[in-house]
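The authors assume throughout that readers already know how a fold can be written as discrete tokens. What matters is that the chain and its backbone geometry are given together, residue for residue. A single example would do more here than another paragraph of explanation. For illustration, here is how one protein appears when written out as sequence plus structure tokens.
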Amino acid sequence: MRLKLFPENILERLALLSGRLPEPLLELYFSMGISSTLIAGLRLNIFELVKSGKNTWEEIVRETGSNPEGIRTLLDALNGFGYLKKKGDRYLLTRKTEKWILGDFIESYLLMADIKDRFANLEEVIKRGGKSDFHDNKNPEFWEHYLIGIYKFSKIASKEVAFRLRMKRGGGRVLDLGGGHGLYTATLLKMNRRLQGVILDLPEACKIGKRIVKIEGVENRVRFLEGDMREIEWGGGYDLVLFFNIIHIFTEEENIILLKRAREVLNEGGRIAILDSEFPDKEDLSAVAGFNQLLFYLINNSRVFNESRIKKWVEVAGYRRIRRSRLLTVPMTLFLTAQK
């Protein structure tokens, strides 16, 4: 999946086909504009105001307390990028804005805005080396954006993932490592009413996760373990252990230790499931793989590991029947299962 320049008329198409336009420069120009404009619109609550009917330039200036010309230029940019449309003196939501920005994903966009702020120091981090850990942040507002944002985004794939991991009707226990928002566990539990869940994550994440599992209606079947998964006890007697979006946080040595610990707490025949960013075993990367590698280095001083390397760890940890599946809802991810 890549962002590409898309001509809006025949002259622009001919200019691109001529090979005489500096495409990388235009990609930089427009990507900078799209992300900055969209974030400003979100943080100034422009889309909610338009939805509520306060959608003239004057009304938006008054409600946001902003500079009139500043708001005019922002509204024009949002219109140009296709997030708003204009009818007379009023601004209206486009279909994609109504569906994808004001739907379930508003917190996911705010999370992306928080992450974009980190890129202001990218050159310095690259020159001096990464040191920060995204998860050391103690700001409650950060964790609210982070967990709720991931929770809402995970709804895209949670039902497909749960279907592929469906458990026997006899019940069982699932351990969700670093699964703070709780959606994957909750979805599994709703598919099997006799299943019990344990979610292990940092205290800041568990605080929000407890709210989410209550929203999902499974709070009576979920227990939270608070702490660093590398340091606290996990319990035992599990039939499934989830490693969802945590492999890229840890080093190779730490991941092997965690995989071995998971095997120790699994019942015989129990499974692990790994869901993480895809990093293909080839020289040229996709845009998603390349960017995620940079992103995780910036925010966690960590990296994405390729599929063959992760499979090797799983083998070293003593698992069998290692299988890779393709998820239709999020095809740019790695989804592995293995059995004790």
